[in-house]
Structure to design on (508 residues):
């Protein structure tokens, strides 16, 4: 395919990069199979332990120089990366769609998200601010400033194979850090393509070798990052199980971890909702990326007065969904990432039925010439009791649960009852309901929306959630502070040495 060639993707790719060059690796290859048609796209050489150590050495050396570049100059490098992403948007969007399986519109949207975070980071490079404070001691001044943290490890997931890396890398780079990225072993070619794009910019602008590093491998490579004392921050996106393992390893060496983990997101549909907004929000939230977003809508909590009407409209909307090749823009839903995901989908359906759920839109695998990869499934809808164990479990698949409620307090309690706390929403034209939902005793999620769905966050706001979602914040707002170390400074410009708290220390 032409877009692969334009991105520098071949049948065999080196998987360890240090910015402008690629390191040799061992014989272990990671094979990338497209969930679209089951075909082998290409293979990537897995990073060896020896190559990993070389990557770390180059990154450490690069940091010593990169941190001395003025932040606006580092921002200029990010601006140039954004320009290259604009040039490669169509090709990279197609690769994301083909390797991961999301619709082409979503693939292009993911690359646009990368461009947007570049633009955000450019402005940020001139706003890495601290604070000035009054001292209690005469002739003294206090202030705080932020310094580059050092090496940042980034572990990303398959469902957003490029955007989440960019959230971390662009901010870390303008902050003066260097990055070591381990992409998902399910989407390694997206990582290779991004490294090619960044390497071109860095090579043309004499950026130190080692500012942008790429490693590839299985969970073992992620463990190298998590256990490495030379990496003060590890940002990890993935399942709650993975996040707990990373957090434990990082905490054992007193490092920092930034976690973006599971979501079990709900939309409350009030009796005062505008159904013309609520239906498309619910459908896109539930079936976008074939239900494989951490912000996917998995539960609809619907007021009993409109429950039947809403359900009828929702079922009709599902009947209009087109499933198939995500590169065909006429299709709404592509495949799941692999057959293991299909198994998880089937197991969740079986568990739902066993626990008493009733399906109003039935699921199942799709077969035939157009679904030869074996990864295509039907988005489905089940009526359930809110406390079923399966409802409290995140299943990365297009399964939507419908739940009734009477009072808003009950709906909020149902929404908050799951272990995850990422994204939430309410559909209502009642201002009292919207304010109650956003109040301190309302949604317990990191993201709470009114009259929009649970997915599709903008980069300007901090992204992340609470509870088993991990507590991390990435992307916008002041998330940049994750990538820096804070320092408090006190300057005495007097001829005396008064001590804080009025302490007297007289040497006679």
């Amino acid at each position: 395919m032409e877009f692969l060639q334009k991105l520098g993707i071949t049948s065999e790719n080196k998987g360890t990069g240090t910015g402008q060059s690629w390191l040799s690796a061992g014989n272990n290859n990671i094979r990338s199979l497209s969930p679209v048609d089951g075909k082998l796209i290409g293979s990537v050489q897995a990073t060896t332990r020896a190559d990993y150590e070389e990557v770390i050495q180059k990154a450490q050396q690069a940091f010593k120089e990169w941190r001395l570049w003025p932040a606006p100059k580092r921002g200029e490098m990010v601006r140039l990366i954004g320009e290259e992403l604009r040039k490669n948007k169509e090709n990279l969007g197609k690769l994301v769609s083909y390797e991961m399986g999301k619709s082409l519109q979503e693939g292009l949207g993911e690359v646009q998200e990368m461009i947007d975070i570049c633009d955000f980071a450019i402005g940020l490079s001139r706003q890495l601010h601290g604070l000035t404070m009054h001292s209690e001691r005469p002739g003294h001044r206090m202030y705080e400033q932020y310094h580059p943290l050092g090496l940042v490890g980034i572990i990303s997931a398959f469902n957003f194979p490029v955007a989440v890396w960019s959230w971390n890398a662009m901010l870390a780079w303008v902050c003066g850090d260097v990055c070591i990225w381990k992409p998902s072993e399910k989407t390694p070619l997206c990582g290779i393509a991004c490294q090619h794009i960044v390497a071109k910019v860095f090579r043309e602008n004499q950026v130190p070798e080692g500012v942008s590093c790429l490693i590839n491998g299985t969970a073992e490579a992620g463990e190298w990052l998590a256990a490495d004392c030379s990496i003060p921050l590890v940002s990890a996106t993935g399942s709650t199980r993975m996040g707990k393992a990373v957090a434990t390893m990082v905490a054992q060496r007193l490092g920092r971890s930034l976690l973006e983990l599971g979501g079990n997101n709900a939309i409350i549909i009030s009796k005062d909702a505008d159904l013309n907004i609520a239906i498309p929000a619910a459908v896109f939230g539930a079936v976008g990326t074939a239900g494989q977003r951490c912000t996917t809508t998995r539960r609809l909590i619907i007021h009993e007065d409109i429950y039947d009407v809403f359900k009828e409209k929702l079922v009709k909307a599902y009947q209009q969904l087109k499933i198939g090749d995500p590169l065909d823009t006429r299709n709404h839903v592509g495949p799941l990432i692999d057959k293991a995901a299909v198994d998880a989908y089937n197991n969740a359906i079986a568990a739902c039925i066993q626990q008493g759920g009733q399906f109003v839109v039935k699921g199942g695998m799709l077969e035939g010439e157009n679904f030869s990869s074996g990864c295509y499934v039907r988005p489905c809808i089940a009526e359930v009791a809110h406390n079923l164990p399966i409802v409290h479990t995140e299943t990365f698949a297009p399964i939507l649960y419908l739940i009734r409620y009477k009072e808003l307090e009950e709906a909020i309690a149902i929404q908050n009852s799951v272990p995850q706390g990422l994204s939430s929403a309410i559909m209502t034209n009642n201002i009292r309901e919207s304010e109650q939902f956003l109040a301190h005793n309302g949604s317990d999620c990191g993201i709470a929306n009114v009259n929009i769905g649970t997915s599709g966050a903008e980069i300007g706001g901090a992204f992340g959630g609470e509870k088993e979602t991990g507590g991390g914040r990435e992307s916008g707002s002041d998330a940049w502070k994750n990538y820096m170390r804070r320092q408090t400074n006190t300057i005495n410009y007097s001829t005396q040495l008064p001590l804080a708290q009025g302490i007297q220390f007289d040497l006679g």
Summary: The two ends are 84 Å apart (CA to CA).
